[in-house]
Each structure stands twice: as C-alpha cells, then as structure tokens.
Design goal:
The complex is a heterodimer of chains A (292) and B (236). Helix content of chain A is 72%, strand content 3%. Chain A is mainly alpha-helical and 292 residues long. A two-stranded antiparallel ribbon of chain A has the order 1-2. Chain A has helices at residues 2-31, 38-54, 59-80, 90-112, 137-159, 161-171, 173-177, 183-209, 217-230, 235-255, 260-263, 266-278; strands at residues 127-130, 133-136. The radius of gyration of chain A is 19 Å and the shape is globular. In chain A, α3 crosses α8 and α9 runs parallel beside α12 (266-278). Chain A has a single domain, classed as Orthogonal Bundle (ABC transporter involved in vitamin B12 uptake, BtuC), CATH 1.10.3470. Chain B is of the alpha/beta class and 236 residues long. Chain B has 2 domains: 27-53 and 67-78 and 156-236, P-loop containing nucleotide triphosphate hydrolases (Rossmann fold, 3-Layer(aba) Sandwich), CATH 3.40.50; 88-153, no CATH class. Helices cover 40% and strands 28% of the residues of chain B. Chain B has helices spanning 42-49, 71-77, 94-101, 108-121, 123-127, 138-151, 168-185, 196-202, 220-225, 227-233; strands at residues 2-13, 16-27, 31-36, 55-61, 64-65, 79-82, 156-160, 188-192, 205-210, 213-219. In chain B, the strands form 2 sheets. In chain B, strands 6-7-8-3-9-10 form a 6-stranded mixed sheet, sandwiched between helices. In chain B, strands 2-1-4-5 form a 4-stranded antiparallel sheet, with helices on one face. Chain B is globular. Classes of the chains: A mainly alpha (292), B alpha/beta (236). The interface between A and B is medium-sized, with 23 and 33 residues. Bound molecules: adenosine-5'-diphosphate and magnesium ion. Residues 42-43, 84, 160 of chain B line the site of magnesium ion (MG).
Amino acid sequence: MLLFYQVLDGLVSGSIYAALALAIVLAYRATGVINFAQGQMAVFSAYLAWSLTTIGLPVWLAIAGALLLSVVVGAFLERVVMRRFESAEPLVGIVVSIGLFISVNGLVSLIWGTSLTQFPAVFPAGSIELGDVGITYVALGTVVVLLLVIAALQLLFMRTRLGLGFRAVAVNPESSSLSGLPVGLLLMTGWGLAAALGALAGTLVAPALYLQPGMMDMVLIYALAAAVLGGLDSPFGAVVAAWLIGVVENLAGTFIPAIGNDLKIAVPLVLMCLVLFFRPQGLFGRVEVERV
Amino acid sequence: MNLLEVTGLTTGYGSSTVVHGVDLHVAAHGVTALLGANGAGKTTVLRALSGFLRRQGQLVFDGHPLPSGSPSRVARAGIAHVPQGRGTLRQLTVRENLAVGGLLRRDREGVAQDMAHCEDLFPVLRARRGSQAGELSGGEQQMLAIGRAFMSRPKLLLLDEPSLGLAPRITQELFEMLPRLRQDWGLAVLVVEQNANLALAIADHAVVLEAGQVVLAGPAPDIAGHDDVRRAYLGD
Ligand SMILES: Nc1ncnc2c1ncn2[C@@H]1O[C@H](COP(=O)(O)OP(=O)(O)O)[C@@H](O)[C@H]1O
Ligand SMILES: [Mg+2]
C-alpha cells in the first residue's frame, strides 16, 4: 500500500515536471534554444493568475486568463528577445535565456515582492475512495489535466494545419519559408504555447508550494532533466521521462534510507547522466537518418 | 507580357558582391534557362529573387514589385523555389512534405487533386508516402522537393539544378513534363541547369552568366546555336 501511494505521488509530481518539460521541448523545437527561463516565466504566470483572483475572478477563470496572457508574453519574448539570437551559436541562446531567467526573476520580485503568498486551491480538498485506497482530488486532477494537455497537443500537432506548420518550421525554417509559411509568426506562437504550458505547471504547483519567486527552481531542474532524458525534441519522451523521474525519485527517497528526502533530487540527475552516457540522443530522441 | 522582369540585379553575400547588374525575364507561360559555369552566380540570382539576399535593382513580378527580405512573402506571391540540393523537410514524412507545399491554400479539394497528380508524376512518392523524407535517396528527395513546389500551384517555378542526383531517365521525364505543366497550369519556369542541352531544349529564352554578369541573352535556339555557348557548355 505504501508502494502504491509512493508511485501515485511520484506520478503527480511527475505530471507537473512533465508540463514544464513539454514547455521546454516546444520552445526548443520552435527555436532550437533550451529556455532556462521557462520556469521563471511560469512563476510570472502563476503570479498573474493570483492577481486575477485578487480582483475577484474564480480560480479556474484566473488560470485560464493567465494562460492566455502567457501566450502573449511568450510570443513577445521570442519576437523581441530571442529572435536576435536564434541564428547565432546555440551557446549564445542559452546565455540569453539565462539572462532572461534573471530578468524575469527580478521583475517578479519587483512587482509582487518576495514574501510567500498563498495561492487558492485549484482542486477541491478531500479524496475519492476506490475500494480501500483513497486518491486525493488534487492528485487525480493534476494527472488528468496533464493527460488532457497531452491529448490536445497530439491533436494539434498531428491533425491540424497549424500543427503541421509548427513542425515544418521546427524542422527547417528556411525551407518552410519557401512554401510561404509565416515562419516568424509560427515561432512566436510556439513560444506562446510553451509559455502557456509553463503557466499550467506553475499554477498546478502554486497551491502546494505557496507563491514565491523561486518556487519553480526545483521543478525546472526536474523538467530539464526530463526534457533531456526524453530526447529534447520528443514531447512523448519528455512526459514519460518526467513520470519516471517523479516515481523513481519518490521511491528512492522512501525506500533507500541512505538517500532520504535530502538527497532525492540527485536521483533524477544521476539517472539523466546514466542514460545520456549510453544513449546520447536521450530515451526517445531520434538520431537523424542520413542517406547520401 | 513578361511574368518576371529583372533589371539591374546586384546582390551577394555580406560585403562581397557576386552578381553585378543582371537583366533577365521570364515570359508568361514561358521557360527561361539560366546558364553558366560553376560559380557564375546562378544560385545567387535565384536566392536573391526569393528574398534571401539583400539586393539592388528592379524586380517586377506579375505587375508588382517583388517583396524583398521575406521569402515567405515571395512564395505567397506565387513563386516556388526548388533550391539546389535537397529541398525537403527531412524529419517529416513524404506526405507531410507535400502537404506543407499546399498548406496555405484554401481549396482543399484542389490540394487533394494536386497531391494525387504529384504522386502520378512521381509514383515513388506514393509508394513511400509514410517514410521520413530524410530516408529517401537523393533523386527521390529531388522529386519530393519539386512535388512540394507544385503543391503551392505557383505561377513561377525556380528550379536550381533539378537534374542533380536524378537518374538520367527521371531527368528526361521531368523535362518532358515541364512543358505539359506549362499548358495545364499556366506555369512559367526559370531553370538553372548544368546540362545546358536539356534546359535549352525546353526553354524559349536563355541567359548566360559569367562571373556574375550576363554575357549572352536571347531566344533559346539562337543561344543553342551560338558558337561560344556550344564550346563552353554543350561539349562541342
Ligand atoms: N554563402 C555564400 N557566402 C559567400 N559567398 C558565396 C556563398 N555562396 C556562394 N558564394 C560565392 O558566390 C559566387 C557564385 O556562387 P553561386 O551563385 O553558388 O554559383 P552557381 O550557382 O552559378 O554555381 C561564387 O564565387 C561563390 O563562391
Ligand atoms: Mg548553383
């Protein structure tokens, strides 16, 4: 029974890592930049949602509003900041995104302060009883929301013209422009979508962690590990890796006394290093097939 | 009436100018061949037309100035560019590559018809529709790139060395097909080709570049019969 709850807990945290990891993967596929500011942008979005609740909006509506605003913020950052560095060395993009991380962090502190702020509950308290196990609504809701997100993304990317446009531009912007695709607009939208996914991750953790500028730092590390582990360009891989990380971390923390609660953050990182050692392209990343 | 009228095109890469004041035109429904040795600047001319390079000069397409600085806008104006080398989206499937070509079109039925048409022209595209484009051979990728260009129903097709990597038989078929598309779709073509014989056989007009300048231009039969051209490009 303890095992069941530990696995479930792992899946729940894993779902939150997965939402942010998906954001990182989307932004990476759009612009080839690993966005280290993704977590901090999510914090910004969570505060936005909180501000919307303070003017009287119900929490779900506030979150929806924050998601929409995040699309705008993400698109704006891509157009105004990242666009200049996309054709530069990958390292330049990384440094710029770290700069973005610091700037957004400062902005959040400036606007909302640095003290802990309580975020209203998103899911009702209590739990649903299935036989002799109880699953909290928070746990159930978090996992279900993530599953819905995955389904929606799958539909968007594989079944719509917009999704095909996203994928084409991610593969080769120059070649896509030869078919008339509005490359810049699609890149902006990609980053907007990523920001919205991050916002979802932020608002899902906020009730448990309280709002504070550094609340996504840990989640970012897990999400980065998941994104890399999954193969960076594979949304499916990122989700599976995020769940894996959530579960393994929890089990190791509980059942291996030497690891405990303090060391458990090392688990996903060790896992990541091990996998990358044997499979540099990640668990689900593709090695490009080449024929000459 | 000329579909494309280029006057005094000067362009290059950064500070190095490689094309100096080139004039050329493509007649409506016409085929113009752009000839010249390796490094003469043919690819550069096409890239400048497509809006990839900074340029000077007057470019009029279909009665309007050609937008500069934005390849997407040039494409939307009705120019499809099949670049030199493999102009495919490697990680997308063959089908998806063709779909991207027609992505901006509103007439869904027309798109489906043209897709079938492309697969009739190049049956290998139908046989391998689910494969990643990057898995195709060089020649197959060239067909896919051309098919993708067709899918946007362009008014003008820019072909950069289409025979590169194609088996001679396929090249032959492609060049026999172009005049037909000209009739069916009212397509006009600007073709760059190492194999000058092939290009001159279907062209009505030809321009010869040397070191970024036009050294000879005129009706294709005249160019084909010109002694210098025969010596330089036709292997006489
Ligand atoms: N990306 C580039 N940067 C700088 N110079 C280039 C580039 N591409 C081509 N060139 C130069 O421009 C000239 C014309 O090249 P190109 O247009 O490719 O010739 P062609 O297509 O006729 O073989 C060549 O001297 C070549 O070295
Ligand atoms: Mg060339």
